[in-house]
Design brief:
Largest sheet: 7 strands, mixed
Structural class: alpha/beta
Helix content: 40-55%
Number of strands: 24
Strand content: 15-25%
Shape: rod-shaped
Number of domains: 4
Distance between the termini: 77 Å
Low-confidence stretches: 1-7, 216-223
Radius of gyration: 48 Å
Number of helices: 19
Length: 634
């Protein structure tokens, strides 16, 4: 079976619906609960699903782990062991050492002096500077600051869901700026004296880090500038950042050889001892220490594995393209191919962000996904409604065709029989001239009657289908009733039924199509005669009241109960007594009458009782009598 596309009536309306779907998707993606949540979920999924090729790490974590804290009785007694470790590391000649331990409070003087001396004897040391609770930086003690090459800020602020996906390479408090600890360690490891800045990136030696300068980062609701996404290395990978326990290094200084030519990040790794318990995309359920985040940030810079955000304009353009694609699919493809194309668009909305992620580009997931989903639903919904409309039109056309056939068998049988019988008489028998004229007249009359029936039916169908306007001409009720009674009188006389016309005023007028109204009146009279016993009476009356005209046809026939009255205007419905009466009929005559009356802004009222006859009253708006033009006398 060949599939066909539906007939679209309003492309502008369809385009407006798609535009509304796109706008709704954009607005929804800007909502933190929905848009940001979807973006974070998709980013973490892609982060865990794809892993770049393994690399040779350039850093080592000097872990202040549980063993170290237990051996030295807590955090307050770590400066002495740290000084010892620094002397061992200095002998191994690492590229840089970053101390992610706050040294802002004074300790034992002798131990502090020992640690300061160890710093001074070790080149390229970076100390941590945190954002204090006051209005300034919480810097290390002056004796420590004077002994090191740089200070680096270690303030970390997770996203709204508690996961740290990026760090700020730059923080300011007032006029004092601090670069990130990992960035300063990277600068020292590359032997760069300064960090070069531009609005779109920063440069350290030969490495360009694509971090645009921004006053605020609205996507994370924080005042970070130059935000860099961190490429984390899961701890269970072969190329994970190696660790050395501070306790073991103090006990075995030869372990320092593992740090030769690398950058060492020293800090607490015991989560229970930290105030900054942080989560990452690689393991959202686990918590890691800040020193591990700084080490991963350094590896991101060292390996050049930068993740760059796609420009917002391209996100909008891609999302718009998805909506347009869904719209075109349902506009120009039939049935299953349209839905297949829509499914491909939905897959594309998820595949493109992943493909770009592999190539180190981050395309937000929420806007394309919502655009594809809402665009597809809008296009598919409109497509469904169009198909339903076309099916309804086709069904209506099929129904009208069936009604036409039934009308032929129901209404045209009598005149066709008369024409056929008369023509047979003329050809079979030798008739005198007078008889031939009578038969010819009968054939002519019945032919005209048949033509009027066809015209009436076609007019009713065109009106129902909205293909023609109803004629509006003054119709004299009295003349119409008398004409219909004369037409039905031969049928009534054969059953000895009297058709009585109660007095009708000359000034009683309707406005409408004369032939259609005559057909409706004639059909009611025919039904009254057909279903009335012999030697009864059918009464026709007309009254005007409060701007309406009521034309009533009352018989003394078989009658109906209330259940039958409610169904009498349904197509093909005939009462049980009507079928038992032996009268031919298909049950569509009253349906046609109802259509005619309703097209004239009227209604039909029925009162009936079984065995006591029925009264059909056509109620229509009254019209003014036509005004005759005065004739000039000569």
């Amino acid at each position: 079976m060949m599939m066909t596309r539906p007939a679209w009536k309003s492309t502008a309306r369809y385009g407006g619906l798609l535009a509304a779907a796109f706008l709704a998707a954009v607005l929804a993606s800007l909502q933190p609960e929905l848009g940001e949540g979807l973006d974070h979920w998709a980013y973490d999924f892609m982060f865990r699903s794809y892993e770049p090729p393994a690399w040779q790490t350039q850093s080592v974590i000097l872990a202040i782990d549980e063993e170290t804290l237990y051996a030295y009785h807590g955090v307050d007694h770590l400066r002495g062991p740290l000084a010892s470790a620094m002397r061992s590391l200095a002998a191994a000649a690492p590229k840089a050492i970053a101390i992610d331990v706050t040294l802002a409070d004074p300790g034992d003087t002798r131990t502090d002096d020992e640690l300061a001396a160890a710093f001074a004897a070790t080149p390229r040391v970076v100390l941590a500077s945190d954002m204090g609770s006051g209005e300034g930086w919480d810097d290390p003690l002056p004796k420590f600051r004077a002994s090191v090459a740089a200070l680096g800020q270690v303030h970390t602020e997770p996203d709204s869901d508690g996961i740290t996906r990026a760090i700020a390479l730059e923080k300011r408090i007032g006029k004092v700026r601090r670069w990130a600890l990992s960035l300063e360690a990277f600068r020292l490891s590359r032997g760069a004296a300064h960090i070069l800045e531009s609005p779109q990136d920063i440069q350290v030696g030969d490495t360009i880090i694509p971090v645009p300068k921004q006053e605020t980062d609205s996507t994370r609701n924080r005042n970070d500038s130059r935000v860099m996404r961190v490429r984390y290395i899961p701890a269970d990978r072969p190329h994970a950042i190696p660790r050395i326990s501070l306790k073991k290094l103090v006990d075995d200084p030869s372990l320092a050889r593992q740090c030769a030519g690398k950058v060492v990040f020293a800090g607490l790794t015991v989560v229970t001892a930290l105030h900054d318990r942080l989560q990452t995309p690689v393991a959202p359920a686990a918590q890691i220490a800040g020193v591990e985040i700084n080490a991963n940030a350094f590896e991101t810079m060292a390996q050049g594995l930068f993740l760059t955000d796609v420009a917002y304009a391209w996100v909008l353009l891609f999302s718009l393209g998805l909506v347009a694609g869904a719209g075109l699919a349902f506009r120009y493809l039939p049935g299953a191919p349209a839905y297949a194309a829509a499914a491909a668009i939905l897959v594309l909305a998820g595949a493109v962000p992943y493909i770009l992620f592999i190539h180190r580009l981050v395309l937000p997931f929420s806007m394309p996904a919502l655009s594809a989903a809402l665009g597809t639903m809008a296009a598919a919904g409109y497509y469904y409604l169009v198909i339903r409309r076309d099916l309804a039109v086709e069904h209506a056309a099929r129904t009208r065709y069936q009604q036409a056939m039934q009308f032929v068998t129901h209404e045209m049988r009598t005149p066709l029989s008369a024409i056929q019988g008369s023509s047979e008489l003329m050809t079979r028998y030798a008739l005198n001239e007078e008889k031939r004229k009578q038969i010819a007249q009968l054939i002519n009359t019945e032919s005209k009657r048949l033509a009027r029936m066809v015209e009436v039916f076609l007019s009713v169908e065109r009106l129902s289908a909205g293909q023609m306007e109803l004629k509006r001409e003054p119709i004299g009720v009295r003349a119409m009733v008398e004409l219909c009674v004369e037409r039905v009188r031969p049928l009534a006389e054969r059953k000895h039924i009297a058709v009585v016309i109660e007095p009708v005023g000359e000034d009683l007028y309707l406005s409408g199509d004369r032939e259609l109204m005559e057909y409706a009146c004639y059909n009611l009279l025919t039904n009254a005669v057909k279903y009335s016993p012999q030697r009864t009476e059918v009464t026709v009356s007309a009254r005007r009241s409060e701007g309406i005209v009521g034309i009533a046809v009352k018989d003394q026939g078989i009658g109906m109960d209330q259940k039958e009255v409610r169904q009498i205007f349904q197509k093909f419905y005939r009462t049980r007594k009507a079928e038992e009466s032996g009268e031919a009929g298909s049950g569509i005559g009253l349906s046609i009458v109802q259509q005619i009356v309703e097209q004239h802004d009227g209604r039909i009222e029925v009162t009936s009782q079984p065995g006591a006859g029925s009264c059909f009253t056509v109620v229509l708006p009254a019209a003014q009598a036509p005004v005759e033009n005065p004739v000039e006398r000569t």
